[in-house]
Write a structure and sequence with these properties.
Helix content: 40-55%
Oligomer: single chain
Strand order of the largest sheet: 1-2-13-12-10-11
Strand content: 5-15%
Number of helices: 22
Largest sheet: 6 strands, mixed
Distance between the termini: 58 Å
Number of strands: 13
Radius of gyration: 25 Å
Shape: globular
Bound molecules: glucose-6-phosphate
Protein backbone atom coordinates (compact mmCIF):
# COMPACT_ATOMS: atom_id res chain seq x y z
CA UNK A 1 0.00 0.00 0.00
CA UNK A 2 1.38 3.40 -0.91
CA UNK A 3 1.29 6.36 1.45
CA UNK A 4 -0.78 9.24 0.08
CA UNK A 5 1.26 12.24 -1.05
CA UNK A 6 1.44 14.93 1.62
CA UNK A 7 -0.22 17.31 -0.83
CA UNK A 8 -3.44 15.29 -0.61
CA UNK A 9 -3.75 15.78 3.14
CA UNK A 10 -6.35 18.23 4.49
CA UNK A 11 -3.60 20.01 6.46
CA UNK A 12 -1.74 20.76 3.22
CA UNK A 13 -4.93 22.07 1.61
CA UNK A 14 -5.58 24.25 4.65
CA UNK A 15 -2.09 25.70 4.29
CA UNK A 16 -2.70 26.41 0.57
CA UNK A 17 -5.85 28.34 1.40
CA UNK A 18 -4.14 30.14 4.25
CA UNK A 19 -1.24 31.14 1.97
CA UNK A 20 -3.70 32.97 -0.29
CA UNK A 21 -4.86 35.03 2.69
CA UNK A 22 -1.34 35.77 3.83
CA UNK A 23 0.29 36.48 0.47
CA UNK A 24 -0.16 40.24 0.75
CA UNK A 25 0.33 40.61 4.47
CA UNK A 26 3.44 42.61 5.28
CA UNK A 27 5.87 41.95 8.14
CA UNK A 28 5.41 45.63 9.02
CA UNK A 29 1.76 44.93 9.82
CA UNK A 30 2.48 41.70 11.66
CA UNK A 31 4.88 43.56 13.94
CA UNK A 32 2.62 46.60 14.31
CA UNK A 33 -0.31 44.39 15.33
CA UNK A 34 1.69 42.42 17.88
CA UNK A 35 4.15 44.48 19.91
CA UNK A 36 5.58 41.36 21.59
CA UNK A 37 6.15 39.46 18.36
CA UNK A 38 9.94 39.81 18.47
CA UNK A 39 10.07 38.36 21.99
CA UNK A 40 7.33 35.82 21.50
CA UNK A 41 8.48 34.12 18.32
CA UNK A 42 11.78 32.82 19.57
CA UNK A 43 13.09 29.57 21.05
CA UNK A 44 16.20 28.45 22.90
CA UNK A 45 17.83 25.23 21.83
CA UNK A 46 21.13 23.80 23.09
CA UNK A 47 22.54 27.25 23.78
CA UNK A 48 21.35 28.78 20.51
CA UNK A 49 18.65 31.42 20.34
CA UNK A 50 16.42 31.22 17.30
CA UNK A 51 14.38 34.31 16.45
CA UNK A 52 11.83 33.42 13.78
CA UNK A 53 9.64 36.48 14.23
CA UNK A 54 10.79 38.04 10.95
CA UNK A 55 9.14 35.28 8.96
CA UNK A 56 5.95 35.73 7.00
CA UNK A 57 3.84 33.68 9.36
CA UNK A 58 1.08 34.18 11.87
CA UNK A 59 0.18 31.96 14.79
CA UNK A 60 -2.34 30.29 12.50
CA UNK A 61 0.38 29.51 9.97
CA UNK A 62 2.51 27.93 12.67
CA UNK A 63 -0.42 25.93 14.03
CA UNK A 64 -1.24 24.63 10.56
CA UNK A 65 2.38 23.73 9.87
CA UNK A 66 2.65 21.86 13.17
CA UNK A 67 -0.59 20.04 12.34
CA UNK A 68 0.99 19.02 9.05
CA UNK A 69 4.07 17.69 10.87
CA UNK A 70 1.81 15.73 13.19
CA UNK A 71 -0.26 14.40 10.29
CA UNK A 72 2.83 12.95 8.58
CA UNK A 73 3.89 11.30 11.85
CA UNK A 74 7.05 13.30 12.49
CA UNK A 75 7.38 12.17 16.09
CA UNK A 76 7.11 8.47 15.21
CA UNK A 77 9.50 8.90 12.32
CA UNK A 78 12.11 10.54 14.56
CA UNK A 79 11.64 7.73 17.07
CA UNK A 80 12.27 5.18 14.32
CA UNK A 81 15.50 6.93 13.34
CA UNK A 82 16.80 7.24 16.92
CA UNK A 83 15.97 3.63 17.71
CA UNK A 84 17.91 2.16 14.80
CA UNK A 85 15.11 1.08 12.46
CA UNK A 86 16.25 0.64 8.87
CA UNK A 87 14.57 3.79 7.62
CA UNK A 88 17.00 4.12 4.68
CA UNK A 89 14.91 1.56 2.83
CA UNK A 90 16.56 1.84 -0.58
CA UNK A 91 19.88 0.79 0.93
CA UNK A 92 18.43 -1.35 3.73
CA UNK A 93 20.27 0.59 6.42
CA UNK A 94 19.62 2.14 9.78
CA UNK A 95 20.33 5.87 10.11
CA UNK A 96 22.14 6.33 13.37
CA UNK A 97 24.45 9.32 13.27
CA UNK A 98 22.80 10.22 16.59
CA UNK A 99 24.42 7.10 18.11
CA UNK A 100 27.83 8.62 17.30
CA UNK A 101 27.25 11.05 20.14
CA UNK A 102 25.45 8.71 22.53
CA UNK A 103 26.85 8.64 26.05
CA UNK A 104 28.45 5.47 27.39
CA UNK A 105 25.78 3.26 28.84
CA UNK A 106 23.06 4.46 26.49
CA UNK A 107 21.74 1.52 24.47
CA UNK A 108 21.07 1.85 20.74
CA UNK A 109 20.48 -1.41 18.94
CA UNK A 110 20.80 -2.37 15.31
CA UNK A 111 19.66 -5.93 14.56
CA UNK A 112 19.60 -6.61 18.30
CA UNK A 113 23.21 -5.48 18.88
CA UNK A 114 24.04 -2.41 20.98
CA UNK A 115 26.24 -0.17 18.81
CA UNK A 116 27.28 2.30 21.52
CA UNK A 117 30.23 0.32 22.97
CA UNK A 118 31.71 0.10 19.45
CA UNK A 119 31.31 3.86 18.98
CA UNK A 120 33.17 4.52 22.22
CA UNK A 121 35.90 2.00 21.42
CA UNK A 122 36.62 3.80 18.14
CA UNK A 123 36.49 7.20 19.85
CA UNK A 124 39.07 5.99 22.38
CA UNK A 125 41.39 4.74 19.61
CA UNK A 126 40.95 7.99 17.70
CA UNK A 127 41.71 9.99 20.83
CA UNK A 128 44.87 8.01 21.59
CA UNK A 129 46.09 8.39 18.02
CA UNK A 130 45.27 12.10 17.90
CA UNK A 131 47.22 12.64 21.11
CA UNK A 132 50.23 10.81 19.70
CA UNK A 133 50.29 13.09 16.71
CA UNK A 134 49.68 16.24 18.75
CA UNK A 135 52.33 15.43 21.35
CA UNK A 136 54.95 14.48 18.77
CA UNK A 137 55.14 10.93 20.12
CA UNK A 138 54.23 9.51 16.70
CA UNK A 139 57.35 9.67 14.61
CA UNK A 140 57.56 9.60 10.86
CA UNK A 141 59.79 7.20 8.96
CA UNK A 142 62.92 9.28 9.53
CA UNK A 143 62.24 9.80 13.23
CA UNK A 144 60.72 13.27 13.01
CA UNK A 145 57.36 14.29 14.48
CA UNK A 146 54.42 15.14 12.22
CA UNK A 147 53.91 18.80 11.32
CA UNK A 148 51.24 18.60 8.61
CA UNK A 149 48.17 16.40 8.36
CA UNK A 150 46.50 16.06 4.97
CA UNK A 151 43.02 14.54 4.88
CA UNK A 152 42.25 12.93 1.54
CA UNK A 153 38.53 12.34 1.05
CA UNK A 154 35.56 13.74 -0.83
CA UNK A 155 31.89 14.54 -0.19
CA UNK A 156 30.92 13.26 3.22
CA UNK A 157 34.52 12.25 3.90
CA UNK A 158 35.75 15.81 3.39
CA UNK A 159 33.17 18.55 3.79
CA UNK A 160 32.38 18.01 7.49
CA UNK A 161 35.92 17.85 8.90
CA UNK A 162 37.09 20.58 6.49
CA UNK A 163 34.26 22.90 7.55
CA UNK A 164 34.72 22.17 11.25
CA UNK A 165 38.52 22.43 11.23
CA UNK A 166 38.18 25.94 9.87
CA UNK A 167 35.24 26.77 12.16
CA UNK A 168 37.20 25.75 15.26
CA UNK A 169 40.58 27.16 14.29
CA UNK A 170 40.83 29.20 17.53
CA UNK A 171 40.74 25.88 19.41
CA UNK A 172 43.36 24.16 17.24
CA UNK A 173 47.00 23.63 18.03
CA UNK A 174 49.42 25.93 16.24
CA UNK A 175 51.95 23.11 16.02
CA UNK A 176 50.11 21.33 13.24
CA UNK A 177 48.82 22.38 9.87
CA UNK A 178 45.71 20.40 8.86
CA UNK A 179 44.78 20.46 5.17
CA UNK A 180 42.14 18.86 2.99
CA UNK A 181 42.42 17.45 -0.52
CA UNK A 182 39.23 16.38 -2.25
CA UNK A 183 39.11 17.23 -5.94
CA UNK A 184 40.47 14.75 -8.48
CA UNK A 185 41.80 17.83 -10.27
CA UNK A 186 45.55 17.37 -9.76
CA UNK A 187 45.87 21.07 -9.02
CA UNK A 188 44.30 20.41 -5.63
CA UNK A 189 46.87 17.92 -4.37
CA UNK A 190 49.68 19.78 -6.12
CA UNK A 191 48.83 22.94 -4.16
CA UNK A 192 48.17 21.15 -0.87
CA UNK A 193 51.52 19.32 -0.92
CA UNK A 194 53.53 22.24 -2.27
CA UNK A 195 56.42 23.02 0.06
CA UNK A 196 55.65 20.14 2.43
CA UNK A 197 58.32 17.83 3.78
CA UNK A 198 57.29 14.19 3.32
CA UNK A 199 59.22 13.28 6.48
CA UNK A 200 56.82 15.36 8.61
CA UNK A 201 53.56 14.82 6.68
CA UNK A 202 50.78 12.42 7.62
CA UNK A 203 48.01 11.52 5.18
CA UNK A 204 44.61 10.39 6.39
CA UNK A 205 42.79 8.56 3.62
CA UNK A 206 39.14 8.95 4.56
CA UNK A 207 36.85 6.80 2.49
CA UNK A 208 34.04 4.65 3.76
CA UNK A 209 34.25 2.38 0.72
CA UNK A 210 37.93 2.89 -0.16
CA UNK A 211 36.91 2.71 -3.81
CA UNK A 212 35.93 6.32 -4.54
CA UNK A 213 37.71 7.33 -7.74
CA UNK A 214 38.76 10.82 -6.67
CA UNK A 215 40.05 9.73 -3.28
CA UNK A 216 41.89 6.71 -4.59
CA UNK A 217 43.57 8.81 -7.29
CA UNK A 218 44.66 11.40 -4.72
CA UNK A 219 45.83 8.73 -2.28
CA UNK A 220 47.94 7.03 -4.98
CA UNK A 221 49.48 10.38 -5.94
CA UNK A 222 50.18 11.16 -2.28
CA UNK A 223 51.86 7.78 -1.83
CA UNK A 224 54.01 8.35 -4.94
CA UNK A 225 54.93 11.83 -3.62
CA UNK A 226 55.91 10.37 -0.25
CA UNK A 227 57.97 7.55 -1.75
CA UNK A 228 59.65 9.97 -4.11
CA UNK A 229 60.84 11.85 -1.02
CA UNK A 230 61.53 9.04 1.44
CA UNK A 231 62.55 6.28 -1.01
CA UNK A 232 61.36 3.42 1.16
CA UNK A 233 58.14 1.44 0.84
CA UNK A 234 58.11 0.93 4.61
CA UNK A 235 57.50 4.69 5.03
CA UNK A 236 53.87 4.28 3.89
CA UNK A 237 52.85 2.67 7.17
CA UNK A 238 54.23 5.64 9.20
CA UNK A 239 52.75 8.33 6.97
CA UNK A 240 49.35 6.95 5.99
CA UNK A 241 46.36 6.04 8.13
CA UNK A 242 42.86 5.22 6.98
CA UNK A 243 39.32 6.01 7.99
CA UNK A 244 37.25 3.34 6.34
CA UNK A 245 35.00 0.34 6.65
CA UNK A 246 36.93 -1.64 4.00
CA UNK A 247 39.86 -3.44 5.73
CA UNK A 248 41.00 -5.50 2.71
CA UNK A 249 41.27 -2.45 0.45
CA UNK A 250 43.08 -0.49 3.15
CA UNK A 251 45.64 -3.26 3.58
CA UNK A 252 46.15 -3.60 -0.15
CA UNK A 253 47.06 0.08 -0.26
CA UNK A 254 49.90 -0.53 2.23
CA UNK A 255 48.25 0.94 5.32
CA UNK A 256 48.65 -1.01 8.53
CA UNK A 257 45.11 -1.99 9.60
CA UNK A 258 46.23 -1.19 13.16
CA UNK A 259 46.04 2.38 11.93
CA UNK A 260 42.62 2.04 10.36
CA UNK A 261 39.70 3.67 12.12
CA UNK A 262 36.35 2.22 11.30
CA UNK A 263 32.77 3.26 11.15
CA UNK A 264 29.56 1.54 10.20
CA UNK A 265 27.10 1.26 7.36
CA UNK A 266 24.49 3.06 9.49
CA UNK A 267 26.53 6.27 9.24
CA UNK A 268 25.76 8.07 5.98
CA UNK A 269 28.67 10.00 4.45
CA UNK A 270 27.12 13.43 4.93
CA UNK A 271 26.23 12.56 8.53
CA UNK A 272 29.66 11.18 9.39
CA UNK A 273 31.75 14.09 10.64
CA UNK A 274 31.36 13.04 14.26
CA UNK A 275 32.55 9.51 13.46
CA UNK A 276 36.15 8.52 12.64
CA UNK A 277 35.75 10.78 9.59
CA UNK A 278 36.42 13.59 12.06
CA UNK A 279 39.96 12.31 12.81
CA UNK A 280 41.64 15.26 11.09
CA UNK A 281 39.50 17.63 13.16
CA UNK A 282 40.25 15.70 16.33
CA UNK A 283 43.98 15.98 15.63
CA UNK A 284 43.56 19.73 15.16
CA UNK A 285 41.50 20.46 18.27
CA UNK A 286 42.27 17.47 20.50
CA UNK A 287 39.97 14.77 21.89
CA UNK A 288 38.59 16.90 24.72
CA UNK A 289 37.38 19.63 22.42
CA UNK A 290 36.00 16.93 20.12
CA UNK A 291 33.99 15.60 23.06
CA UNK A 292 32.61 19.13 23.59
CA UNK A 293 31.55 19.11 19.96
CA UNK A 294 29.78 15.80 20.48
CA UNK A 295 28.08 17.23 23.57
CA UNK A 296 26.71 20.05 21.42
CA UNK A 297 25.30 17.57 18.90
CA UNK A 298 23.83 15.57 21.78
CA UNK A 299 22.19 18.60 23.37
CA UNK A 300 20.44 19.43 20.09
CA UNK A 301 19.43 15.77 19.65
CA UNK A 302 17.79 15.91 23.07
CA UNK A 303 16.04 19.17 22.24
CA UNK A 304 14.76 17.71 18.96
CA UNK A 305 13.48 14.57 20.69
CA UNK A 306 11.82 16.26 23.61
CA UNK A 307 10.72 19.83 22.84
CA UNK A 308 7.09 20.28 21.75
CA UNK A 309 6.93 20.72 17.97
CA UNK A 310 5.83 24.34 18.29
CA UNK A 311 8.96 25.12 20.36
CA UNK A 312 11.32 22.80 18.56
CA UNK A 313 14.08 24.70 16.76
CA UNK A 314 14.90 22.19 13.99
CA UNK A 315 11.19 21.52 13.43
CA UNK A 316 10.41 25.24 13.18
CA UNK A 317 13.27 25.82 10.73
CA UNK A 318 12.04 22.88 8.68
CA UNK A 319 8.40 23.93 8.66
CA UNK A 320 9.28 27.51 7.73
CA UNK A 321 11.23 26.06 4.82
CA UNK A 322 8.25 23.97 3.74
CA UNK A 323 6.04 27.06 4.00
CA UNK A 324 8.26 29.11 1.68
CA UNK A 325 9.07 26.27 -0.71
CA UNK A 326 5.61 24.86 -1.18
CA UNK A 327 3.21 27.68 -0.40
CA UNK A 328 5.03 30.92 -1.25
CA UNK A 329 7.12 29.67 -4.18
CA UNK A 330 10.68 30.14 -2.89
CA UNK A 331 13.27 28.25 -4.90
CA UNK A 332 16.35 28.79 -2.80
CA UNK A 333 17.44 29.24 0.78
CA UNK A 334 20.37 31.39 1.89
CA UNK A 335 22.53 30.62 4.91
CA UNK A 336 24.51 33.70 5.89
CA UNK A 337 26.92 33.28 8.78
CA UNK A 338 28.33 36.46 10.26
CA UNK A 339 31.39 34.50 11.31
CA UNK A 340 34.41 34.21 9.04
CA UNK A 341 35.28 30.87 10.59
CA UNK A 342 32.02 29.52 9.12
CA UNK A 343 33.33 30.21 5.63
CA UNK A 344 32.67 26.60 4.57
CA UNK A 345 29.40 26.15 6.43
CA UNK A 346 27.18 26.70 3.39
CA UNK A 347 29.27 24.22 1.36
CA UNK A 348 28.71 21.67 4.10
CA UNK A 349 24.98 22.41 4.28
CA UNK A 350 24.64 22.18 0.52
CA UNK A 351 25.54 18.53 0.69
CA UNK A 352 23.60 17.86 3.87
CA UNK A 353 20.43 19.43 2.52
CA UNK A 354 20.58 19.03 -1.25
CA UNK A 355 21.90 15.46 -1.29
CA UNK A 356 19.33 14.49 1.33
CA UNK A 357 16.22 16.19 -0.02
CA UNK A 358 17.03 16.81 -3.68
CA UNK A 359 14.60 14.04 -4.67
CA UNK A 360 11.45 13.79 -6.82
CA UNK A 361 9.97 10.51 -5.64
CA UNK A 362 8.68 9.51 -2.24
CA UNK A 363 9.97 6.58 -0.20
CA UNK A 364 7.51 4.30 -1.97
CA UNK A 365 8.45 5.56 -5.41
CA UNK A 366 5.61 7.98 -6.22
CA UNK A 367 6.45 11.13 -8.18
CA UNK A 368 5.79 14.16 -6.01
CA UNK A 369 3.51 16.96 -7.22
CA UNK A 370 5.08 19.61 -4.98
CA UNK A 371 8.51 21.17 -4.61
CA UNK A 372 11.06 19.48 -2.36
CA UNK A 373 14.54 20.60 -1.21
CA UNK A 374 15.57 24.15 -2.17
CA UNK A 375 18.87 25.34 -3.59
CA UNK A 376 20.98 26.08 -0.51
CA UNK A 377 23.69 28.68 -0.76
CA UNK A 378 25.47 31.42 1.11
CA UNK A 379 28.74 33.01 2.17
CA UNK A 380 29.80 34.83 5.31
CA UNK A 381 28.58 38.36 5.91
CA UNK A 382 29.50 41.11 5.38
CA UNK A 383 31.09 40.22 2.04
CA UNK A 384 27.76 39.17 0.57
CA UNK A 385 26.32 42.58 1.37
CA UNK A 386 28.61 44.09 -1.23
CA UNK A 387 27.72 41.46 -3.77
CA UNK A 388 24.39 39.64 -4.01
CA UNK A 389 22.38 41.27 -1.20
CA UNK A 390 21.11 43.77 -3.77
CA UNK A 391 18.94 40.97 -5.16
CA UNK A 392 17.84 39.95 -1.67
CA UNK A 393 16.67 43.50 -0.95
CA UNK A 394 15.21 44.62 -4.25
CA UNK A 395 15.09 41.63 -6.61
CA UNK A 396 11.92 39.89 -7.75
CA UNK A 397 12.62 36.58 -6.01
CA UNK A 398 11.70 35.38 -2.58
CA UNK A 399 14.89 34.17 -0.87
CA UNK A 400 14.33 33.21 2.78
CA UNK A 401 17.59 33.42 4.72
CA UNK A 402 19.11 32.22 7.97
CA UNK A 403 21.40 34.75 9.63
CA UNK A 404 23.88 33.10 12.00
CA UNK A 405 25.90 35.20 14.44
CA UNK A 406 27.64 35.09 17.81
CA UNK A 407 27.99 37.54 20.70
CA UNK A 408 31.72 36.91 21.07
CA UNK A 409 34.22 36.73 18.22
CA UNK A 410 36.96 34.16 17.71
CA UNK A 411 39.48 36.99 17.98
CA UNK A 412 38.72 40.23 19.79
CA UNK A 413 40.18 42.74 17.32
CA UNK A 414 39.46 46.41 18.04
CA UNK A 415 35.80 47.16 17.40
CA UNK A 416 35.49 44.75 14.47
CA UNK A 417 33.00 42.46 16.11
CA UNK A 418 30.53 45.18 17.04
CA UNK A 419 30.75 46.52 13.49
CA UNK A 420 30.12 43.03 12.13
CA UNK A 421 27.15 42.49 14.38
CA UNK A 422 25.73 45.93 13.63
CA UNK A 423 25.54 44.75 10.02
CA UNK A 424 24.06 41.44 11.13
CA UNK A 425 21.15 43.12 12.92
CA UNK A 426 20.76 45.85 10.32
CA UNK A 427 20.32 43.47 7.43
CA UNK A 428 17.44 41.47 8.88
CA UNK A 429 15.74 44.71 9.91
CA UNK A 430 16.14 46.19 6.44
CA UNK A 431 14.99 43.02 4.73
CA UNK A 432 11.86 42.77 6.86
CA UNK A 433 10.76 46.37 7.04
CA UNK A 434 12.31 47.98 3.98
CA UNK A 435 11.73 51.65 3.28
CA UNK A 436 8.49 53.00 1.88
CA UNK A 437 8.18 55.46 -0.99
CA UNK A 438 6.90 58.04 1.50
CA UNK A 439 10.00 57.63 3.65
CA UNK A 440 12.21 57.94 0.59
CA UNK A 441 10.37 61.08 -0.56
CA UNK A 442 10.59 62.56 2.94
CA UNK A 443 14.36 62.24 2.66
CA UNK A 444 14.25 64.46 -0.40
CA UNK A 445 14.25 62.00 -3.28
CA UNK A 446 12.12 63.05 -6.23
CA UNK A 447 10.90 61.67 -9.54
CA UNK A 448 12.08 58.30 -10.69
CA UNK A 449 14.59 58.03 -7.84
CA UNK A 450 11.78 57.42 -5.39
CA UNK A 451 11.02 54.09 -7.04
CA UNK A 452 14.68 53.13 -7.22
CA UNK A 453 15.31 53.90 -3.58
CA UNK A 454 12.20 52.19 -2.24
CA UNK A 455 12.72 48.88 -0.43
CA UNK A 456 9.48 46.94 -0.32
CA UNK A 457 10.71 44.76 2.58
CA UNK A 458 8.71 41.70 3.66
CA UNK A 459 11.79 39.56 2.99
CA UNK A 460 11.82 36.77 5.57
CA UNK A 461 14.79 35.88 7.74
CA UNK A 462 15.49 33.71 10.75
CA UNK A 463 18.19 34.80 13.16
CA UNK A 464 20.29 32.23 14.98
CA UNK A 465 22.30 33.88 17.73
CA UNK A 466 24.83 32.03 19.86
CA UNK A 467 27.20 33.13 22.57
CA UNK A 468 30.40 32.05 20.87
CA UNK A 469 31.41 29.65 18.11
CA UNK A 470 32.75 26.99 20.48
CA UNK A 471 32.99 23.27 19.70
CA UNK A 472 29.74 22.80 21.64
CA UNK A 473 27.96 25.53 19.69
CA UNK A 474 29.18 24.12 16.36
CA UNK A 475 27.90 20.66 17.28
CA UNK A 476 24.52 22.13 18.21
CA UNK A 477 24.39 24.15 15.00
CA UNK A 478 25.16 21.17 12.78
CA UNK A 479 22.62 18.97 14.57
CA UNK A 480 20.06 21.78 14.21
CA UNK A 481 20.39 21.51 10.45
CA UNK A 482 20.61 17.70 10.44
CA UNK A 483 17.25 17.50 12.17
CA UNK A 484 15.81 20.27 10.04
CA UNK A 485 16.69 18.27 6.94
CA UNK A 486 15.26 15.11 8.52
CA UNK A 487 11.99 16.87 9.36
CA UNK A 488 11.61 18.24 5.85
CA UNK A 489 12.33 14.81 4.40
CA UNK A 490 9.54 13.35 6.51
CA UNK A 491 7.08 16.08 5.50
CA UNK A 492 7.92 15.58 1.82
CA UNK A 493 7.81 11.79 2.18
CA UNK A 494 11.40 11.35 0.94
CA UNK A 495 14.23 9.00 1.80
CA UNK A 496 16.74 11.64 2.92
CA UNK A 497 19.50 9.08 3.35
CA UNK A 498 20.30 7.72 -0.09
CA UNK A 499 21.89 9.53 -3.04
CA UNK A 500 21.13 7.62 -6.22
CA UNK A 501 21.38 10.86 -8.16
CA UNK A 502 25.17 10.82 -7.97
CA UNK A 503 25.43 7.38 -9.59
CA UNK A 504 24.74 8.04 -13.26
CA UNK A 505 27.52 10.61 -13.67
CA UNK A 506 29.96 8.27 -11.89
CA UNK A 507 29.12 5.41 -14.26
CA UNK A 508 29.43 7.60 -17.34
CA UNK A 509 32.76 9.03 -16.13
CA UNK A 510 34.03 5.47 -15.79
CA UNK A 511 33.05 4.84 -19.40
CA UNK A 512 34.49 8.11 -20.74
CA UNK A 513 37.88 8.00 -18.93
CA UNK A 514 39.40 5.37 -21.29
CA UNK A 515 37.86 7.14 -24.29
CA UNK A 516 39.89 10.23 -23.42
CA UNK A 517 43.18 8.40 -23.13
CA UNK A 518 43.04 5.48 -25.57
CA UNK A 519 45.86 5.66 -28.14
CA UNK A 520 43.51 4.67 -30.96
CA UNK A 521 40.44 6.71 -31.86
CA UNK A 522 37.64 5.44 -29.63
CA UNK A 523 34.32 4.24 -31.00
CA UNK A 524 32.20 7.00 -29.43
CA UNK A 525 28.56 6.15 -28.87
CA UNK A 526 27.32 9.11 -26.89
CA UNK A 527 25.03 11.88 -28.14
CA UNK A 528 26.48 14.13 -30.84
CA UNK A 529 27.39 16.89 -28.39
CA UNK A 530 29.31 14.62 -26.02
CA UNK A 531 31.03 12.85 -28.94
CA UNK A 532 32.15 16.16 -30.45
CA UNK A 533 33.40 17.48 -27.13
CA UNK A 534 35.41 14.33 -26.46
CA UNK A 535 36.97 14.52 -29.96
CA UNK A 536 37.84 18.18 -29.42
CA UNK A 537 39.42 17.40 -26.04
CA UNK A 538 41.47 14.55 -27.52
CA UNK A 539 42.66 16.80 -30.25
CA UNK A 540 43.62 19.60 -27.80
CA UNK A 541 45.53 17.01 -25.79
CA UNK A 542 47.36 15.90 -28.94
CA UNK A 543 45.49 12.62 -29.16
CA UNK A 544 44.29 13.02 -32.70
CA UNK A 545 41.79 10.49 -33.94
CA UNK A 546 44.09 9.12 -36.62
C1 LIG B 1 27.38 11.27 1.32
C2 LIG B 1 27.72 10.52 0.12
C3 LIG B 1 29.05 10.88 -0.48
C4 LIG B 1 30.24 10.13 0.07
C5 LIG B 1 31.42 10.31 -0.89
C6 LIG B 1 32.68 9.67 -0.39
O1 LIG B 1 26.39 11.12 1.98
O2 LIG B 1 27.56 9.18 0.37
O3 LIG B 1 29.33 12.25 -0.44
O4 LIG B 1 30.54 10.56 1.34
O5 LIG B 1 31.08 9.83 -2.15
O6 LIG B 1 32.51 8.28 -0.27
P1 LIG B 1 33.58 7.40 0.42
O7 LIG B 1 33.72 7.80 1.85
O8 LIG B 1 33.13 5.98 0.28
O9 LIG B 1 34.90 7.64 -0.32
Amino acid sequence: MTTPLVSSLPQWKALSAHAENLRNVHLRDLFADDPDRGERLGVEAAGLHLDYSKNRVTDTTLDLLVELAEAVGLRDAAGRMFSGEKINVTEGRAVLHTALRATAGQVVEVDGVDVVPGVHAVLARLGAFAEKIRSGAWLGHTGQPIRTVVNIGIGGSDLGPAMATLALRPYATDDLDVRFVSNVDGDDIAEKTRGLDPATTLFIVASKTFTTQETMANAATARAWLLDGLKDQAAVARHFVAVSTAAAEVEAFGIDTENMFGFWDWVGGRYSMDSAVGLSLMIAIGPERFEELLAGFRAMDTHFRTAPLRENAPVLLALLGVWYTDFLGAESHAVLPYAQYLDSFADYLQQLDMESNGKSVTVDGQRVDYATGPVVWGTPGTNGQHAYYQLLHQGTRLVPADFIGFAHPGNEVGDHHDLLMANFFAQTEALAFGKTADEVAAEGATGVLVAHKTFEGNRPTTTILGEKLTPFALGALIALYEHKVFTQGIVWGLNSFDQWGVQLGKVLAGRIAPELTSPAAPDLRHDSSTNALIRRYRSLRGRADA
